[in-house]
Design a protein that fits this description.
The complex is a heterotetramer, with two copies of chain A and two copies of chain B. By secondary structure, chain A is of the alpha/beta class. Helices cover 30% and strands 21% of the residues of chain A. Chain A has one domain (6-55, 71-195, 215-297): TIM Barrel (Alpha-Beta Barrel), CATH 3.20.20.70. In chain B, the strands form three sheets. Chain B has a seven-stranded antiparallel β-sheet. A seven-stranded mixed β-sheet of chain B has the order 11-10-9-8-12-13-16, sandwiched between helices. The chains are: A alpha/beta, B alpha/beta. Chains A and C meet through strand 11, strand 13, helix 6 and helix 7 of A and strand 11, strand 13, helix 6 and helix 7 of C. The structure holds flavin-adenine dinucleotide (FAD) (2 copies), flavin mononucleotide (2 copies) and FE2/S2 (inorganic) cluster (FES) (2 copies). Chains A, C: Catalyzes the conversion of dihydroorotate to orotate.
Chain lengths: 303, 260, 303, 260
């Protein structure tokens, strides 16, 4: 049994396996399938200051080894979260991290402040990379100036661990990573979904109500892995890697490429027990290869 | 209800029709409790184009044989692959999912209950009829298909109530769509349950609304997870966007914002 | 039988199905599997002015619904092509189009000039998007200025149909498309491969000798389709769509999204007869839906 | 040689060993001509993680039965799925691919030919031995495996020549690696053919070079297409990067730039 503890800034994780925002509900949806306390952390649904209905149905299209979604940040708002959901999840013995979104810098800040007040939420993940909303979201995440602006503003009001989630829909992800590092982000997580599209040839119509949506799942893994590796060579803050992870081997690959921890997203739908299986698989890998601690494999790729 | 992630064994897989198969799944353990209208999410192995699980209604639960039945219409790669599962194969399923149909209290006065199924939408009606019958009701099934070959499991339905049939070509029962059937003019129903193609459900809902009959429909919105985690399956209701997989798949038509 | 003719600038194609550079050799490799004359056009291997050995082995990694390659433009140079290969392919009754690459603007121009002299080559595809070479390639394709510079220079010396192949590794593909349109490109083709990476977890090493490589195959289709649609709404010149096409339905989707023609790449490896099957499938689709000409479905997506 | 894209029928699929299966493929038409050392590219249906075809050597061609044999080692999802193909299933293959081993002219004086195979590298040696024997040669097979269970098809090999064996645990034949076998000290060979794990082939090539024996190796570089279209399978040779699938998979070691 290797030591699985890792740190993301001041945040100590019991193991590097976490679940990705928008794919794991508030954790409780999976309580019948896995022991939530065995997961390193849970990134809950994208939360905004205001109640949002999200995009019209249809919001989903299956694609080769993946899916497109256009949920559009449906959520009942930060107040509802604080009053109605937080009480039910705050005592789960793992880190519950809130994924914070907004349509303007001000709404990001307001939402972050609201969440900062919740004792048992040790970190937020700033979503500047959602491709499924008209305003905000990805618009901030694809330029250094936009990313820096949001992070600077949120950093002022958010004293706990600030993770910034990067968009893969950019020419150079390292540029954005460096920009948010410079503004005091404690960590970056990447990748969010890639902008994609699906068409119904028979109906000659887009499948998603929003025409385009966010691509996720195993299909994006090679791109995500590359971006993690590039970012690892560009910044000093820890990286949380995600994008297409569907087994422990994928998770190990992301850690070798430079991730201090990883998130599993879409694959939770395919195998609701994958998160805990991944913890076990990483442990077996470490034992087999004689590593005493999982930290030994972070960035350990031999190039 | 507690959800399970189970490896079930294929006890039988009957090709009822070129486009339909009936999968009978069993387990060494007693299968979890399921209620009519609920569904399961099937992991399809061995289909390179099927990434997500496939939602399939509970067609029937045979408690004596500890069997879960799934009636599957072959429409794409995933369902076609399901038809290839052989006896003894393992099928991984998440179950039971969603909410069921409203079952009236059995000690109330007898009710006229109509169960309308079209195409593969007949699937949940069998189990619903079985449970209603076990509670002392005498459900009437109204089943529609294109031809006589497309109306399946008739022997099973007959065990649990009266069966009315329509076919588009008139080869069995009355000719036309389910909403053309004479029973709708001759009998007054207290509740209608329906599942099938959307145009059919809309027509049934319209009929029910016209006569002020309570009507429950089972929706088949496309799903990624099936248990409330992805928010992909939403239906627009009077309460806003709600997840069909957790708040449904059964909805009272009063709640829906369909144009009926 | 619908009319399958389409035009790309002055180039008339007997049908919109072509094969992608680097995946179809010089056509002759597939002559045993398909009747080459039934294909709308063949984009031959990436050609440079000089002989290139390409990257060291290993150059390939399989990924979920796709593959990474790091061939690195191995080819014997434009002269060798002109003297030794061109004579063998010039009489094949379809359009043979040369994919031209370089490491500097000058070498692009030189190569284009050499190919311009070959009578039976009616068009070139300017590859400003190869992610597998150290100099040139993608470096030009990810900025408007770089893309414009190459196209401007090549346009001066190349009078026939000039197709520019765009990189998907950019924040905004429409920007680049507009830049090359402004410099006189006759058409754009997209997408080239996405930059990706694969790791061998057991060996803790990258699988490719070059660490990163180009991702292609069905996995990239949703991204490619989105980029085609965005570009269709941004430029007036015709678009040749590609990226993950593996059957006639995919091809129809790309045309609905705005492609005047399409290319099939990686899937030729999986089914060497896919190109001609795709022609047949498109024809059946047109007949079924009552279209008299394939041009009716170009950009016919109802949004 | 003309290449074909064929749907072959599985005549038999024998699990020779937990990690090996022997697929016998047949067709209604006469199978195309194939030569030892060539390979085929198999499309694996029903494995979601297998996207590209899988290159597999021609193990044997039984002309009388119109059968192509493939000896497959189960190492990943693709090969594991191949082991599940059942009699009557269809397997799509591209064939024949690559160049074969050099077969000496049969009217020359008798030659001492050694065929060295390790692990699944024994696969092409069977067909090579059969063809050599049919040309009047008496090949000697030198086959290596970890244990006696890992040396396969011994009865078949015995039909075509003398068989020498090494196993790492000494459970069959001489103990050690193929390059430790006594035959290498007692007999002088004119040509050595070899296929197996790279370290083994390097050791064999070294032995051959030391004695100035002509040596042909069959390489297994990873491939995307198998017929010269992708340039992924290159080997560094004295002529630069050449495609293993079209210029090989068989190479004379003189051509290779291995560190031997
Ligand atoms: C709650 C629920 C219960 C269901 N119960 C049953 C059942 O008991 N028996 C049964 O056979 N099917 C049932 N379905 C539908 C079934 O899930 C789909 O037919 C199946 O997912 C198709 O998978 P496939 O891989 O074969 O086809 P795909 O390749 O996924 O799809 C083929 C074509 O059908 C369309 N399609 C796929 N799924 C749906 C859908 N849900 N609604 C409309 N169009 C769709 C696709 O857009 C595509 O054009 C149910 C669906 C839901 C949501
Ligand atoms: C010309 C040629 C002839 C071959 N002949 C045979 C044969 O007769 N019988 C046979 O069993 N196999 C043969 N092989 C090897 C065979 O192609 C691979 O074992 C097969 O592709 C593995 O597929 P998979 O999906 O099972 O494993 P994958 O999931 O693709 O791979 C599993 C693991 O094996 C590694 N791997 C895969 N392919 C190779 C390879 N070619 N070399 C080294 N490592 C690899 C992968 O990197 C991975 O770590 C041959 C290969 C070539 C190129
Ligand atoms: C249905 C769905 C909803 C998502 N919602 C969010 C969200 O609210 N906030 C966010 O930052 N990312 C969201 N994502 C992106 C995932 O968190 C993750 O970044 C992405 O899916 C890539 O990882 P994966 O391939 O493992 O799924 C969502 C993804 C999916 C599939
Ligand atoms: C092995 C391989 C080699 C390639 N070589 C070239 C090349 O020389 N020039 C080029 O412009 N594109 C090259 N490409 C990219 C393809 O032409 C195509 O743009 C890409 O693969 C996406 O299409 P696909 O998904 O259909 O393969 C290559 C792709 C592969 C897989
Ligand atoms: S299918 Fe995921 S929430 Fe309903
Ligand atoms: S495998 Fe494609 S060229 Fe050899």
């Amino acid at each position: 049994m290797a030591n699985l503890n890792v740190n993301i800034g001041n945040l100590q994780l019991k193991n590097p396996v976490m679940t990705a925002s928008g794919t794991f509900g508030y954790g409780i949806e999976f309580a019948d399938f896995v022991d939530l306390t065995q997961i390193g952390g849970i990134f809950v649904k994208g939360t905004t200051i205001e109640h949002r209905e999200g995009n019209p149905y249809p919001r989903m299209a299956e694609t080769p080894a993946g899916m497109l979604n256009a949920v559009g940040l449906q959520n009942k708002g930060a107040d509802y979260f604080a009053n109605n959901i937080y009480p039910n999840i705050k005592d789960i013995d793992t880190h519950m991290i809130v994924n914070v979104s907004g349509s303007t810098v001000e709404t990001y800040v307001e939402c972050a402040e609201k969440i900062a007040a919740l004792d048992k939420i040790p970190a937020i993940e700033l979503n500047i990379s959602c491709p499924n909303v008209k305003h905000g979201g990805m618009a901030f995440g694809v330029t250094c100036a936009g990313a820096a602006e949001v992070v600077r503003a949120v950093r002022k009001v958010y004293p706990k661990t600030l993770i910034v989630k990067l968009s893969p829909n950019v020419t150079d992800v390292t540029e954005i990573a460096r920009a948010v590092e410079a503004e005091g982000a404690d960590a970056v997580s990447l990748i969010n979904t890639l902008l994609g599209m699906a068409i119904d040839a028979e109906k000659r119509k887009p499948i998603l109500s929003t025409v385009t949506g966010g691509l996720s799942g195993p299909c994006v893994k090679p791109i995500a892995l590359r971006m993690v590796w590039q970012t690892y060579n560009a910044v000093k803050i820890p990286i949380i890697g995600l994008g297409g992870i569907s087994n422990w081997k994928d998770a190990v690959e992301f850690m070798l490429a430079g991730s201090s921890a990883i998130q599993i997203g879409t694959y939770n739908f395919v195998d609701p027990a994958i998160s805990v299986k991944t913890v076990e698989g990483i442990n077996d890998y470490l034992d087999k290869h004689g590593f005493k601690s999982v930290t030994e494999i972070i960035g350990a790729l031999e190039v | 209800m507690k959800k399970y992630l189970l490896d079930l064994k294929v006890a039988d897989n009957v090709r009822l029709h070129p486009n339909y198969c009936l999968l009978k799944l069993t387990s060494e353990e007693t299968l979890p409790e399921m209620i009519p209208g609920q569904f399961v999410e099937v992991r399809v192995d061995g289909s390179s184009s099927t990434f997500l699980r496939r939602p399939i209604s509970v067609n029937y639960v045979d408690k004596d044989r500890n069997e879960l039945w799934l009636l599957v219409q072959l429409i794409g790669d995933g369902t076609r692959r399901m038809a290839e599962y052989r006896q003894g194969d393992t099928m991984n399923v998440v179950l039971p999912l969603g909410n069921g149909f409203t079952i009236p209290d059995s000690d109330q006065e007898e009710k006229n209950l109509l169960l309308v199924g079209g195409g593969v939408g007949t699937a949940p009606m069998l189990f619903l009829g079985a449970v209603l019958k076990s509670k002392g009701f005498h459900p009437i099934f109204l089943l529609g298909g294109r031809t006589q070959n497309d109306v399946l499991q008739l022997d099973d339905f007959a065990k649990f109530g009266d069966v009315c049939i329509t076919t588009e070509d008139g080869s069995l029962g009355e000719k036309g769509f389910v909403t053309n059937h004479s029973i709708l003019n001759t009998k007054l129903f207290d509740t209608i349950y329906t599942c099938g193609p959307k145009p059919m459900m809309v027509a049934v809902a319209k009929y029910a609304a016209g006569k002020d009959i309570s009507c429950e429909v089972s929706l088949e919105n496309t799903m990624a997870c099936g248990f409330g985690a992805c928010l992909c399956c939403v239906e627009n209701t009077v309460e806003g966007h709600v997840c069909v997989c957790t708040e449904g798949p059964v909805f009272n038509t009063r709640k829906l914002k369909w144009q009926i």
